[in-house]
Specification:
It contains seven helices and 17 strands. By secondary structure, it is of the alpha/beta class. The strands form four sheets. Strands 1, 2, 3, 4, 5, 6 and 17 form a seven-stranded mixed beta sheet that branches. It has a five-stranded parallel beta sheet with strand order 8-15-9-10-11. α1 packs parallel to α2 and α5 runs parallel beside α6.
Length: 311
């Protein structure tokens, strides 16, 4: 069995950038795309905050361009899923792809991303990218002078709501409790903002609109009363779930369940295994920060392979 020098799991901005740097360093990387090729960014219709695209670019086109660039320098793309791993502390890393085939690698970069936590409403999926979002930083500018809804009651929800006040005419925060889970300072900022209105002790039962968000249907948990609220944007601010389940037994995770990496670097708790992108980032979760993390991981992996005598 041949041992790969470097296996990259995930081909979003982090994985593709890691592949570009690794391929140019003659590491012959192989990328396993998995069940969501291109990652979460491919579900974003328009990206306006990635440098170099003043007129914006679709998320799918951006990731495919990154992938093509990696392939140009010699990276190989595999569309199989890495279903199981057995990471050691240094030495050969073992991975099993869908179908049962085993591969071995001298180094691995985990760039499997994270997915937003939604309520589970069918309309959330149907209207994704047509008014439904989980990233105010990514999509807030598309909602100028229109009302929007934010779902959640933690710090993330308050940050999203406050950011959206720069664009939206009104920001409704719908929370199932009658008090916030957010930190006192974040809660105070949101509660005191004139553009933010709280809808307490309520849940969203449905999102209205056929082709784009036209409102939400809300139920008051105390009275049972149901009403409709006019809005053009729906932002789920319920946190993110890192795609790390298959690595849980081998890599140290932080208190939020994300892969713990060395501060300022990409090394995980196992030598020879590096982390990059949203699976390691509970704070920023942006395409540009994921790409930067992919660069860092590739350079760290190259240094590790040199020190280990593999190259």
């Amino acid at each position: 069995m041949n041992v790969e020098k470097l296996v990259i799991i995930g081909n979003g901005p982090a994985g593709c950038t890691a592949a570009i740097y690794a391929a140019r360093a003659a590491l012959n990387p192989v990328i396993y795309c998995g069940e969501m090729p291109g990652g979460l960014l491919t579900q974003t219709s328009e990206v306006e905050n990635f440098p170099g695209f003043p007129d914006g670019v679709s998320g799918f086109d951006l990731v495919m361009a990154m992938q093509a660039q990696a392939e140009k320098f010699g990276a190989r793309i595999e569309y199989d899923e890495i279903e199981r791993v057995e990471f050691s502390d240094g030495g050969t890393q073992k991975l099993w792809v869908s179908g049962g085939a085993e591969i071995e690698a001298a180094a691995v970069i985990v760039a499997t991303g994270a997915v937003p936590r939604y309520l589970g409403l069918p309309a959330e999926e149907r209207l994704r990218g047509s008014g439904v979002s989980a990233c105010a930083t990514c999509d807030g500018a598309f909602f100028k002078d229109v009302p929007v809804v934010v779902v959640g009651g933690g710090d993330s929800a308050m940050e999203e709501a406050l950011f959206l006040t720069r664009f939206a005419s009104r920001v409704y925060v719908v929370h199932r409790r009658d008090e916030l889970r957010a930190s006192p300072i974040m809660a105070r900022r949101a509660l005191e903002h004139p553009k933010i209105e709280f809808v307490w002790s309520s849940v969203i039962e449905d999102i209205l609109g056929d082709k784009s968000v036209a409102g939400v249907r809300i139920r008051d948990l105390k009275t049972g009363a149901v009403r409709e609220l006019d809005c053009r944007g729906y932002f789920a601010a319920l946190g993110h779930v890192p795609c790390v389940e298959r690595f849980r037994d081998f890599l140290e995770l932080d208190e939020k369940g994300f892969i713990h990496v060395q501060p300022g670097g990409s090394a995980t708790s196992r030598r020879g295994v590096f982390g990059a992108g949203d699976c390691c980032d509970s704070r920023y979760r942006q395409a540009i920060t994921a790409a930067a993390a992919g660069c860092r991981a590739a350079m760290d992996a190259q240094r590790y392979l040199e020190e280990s005598g593999v190259i």
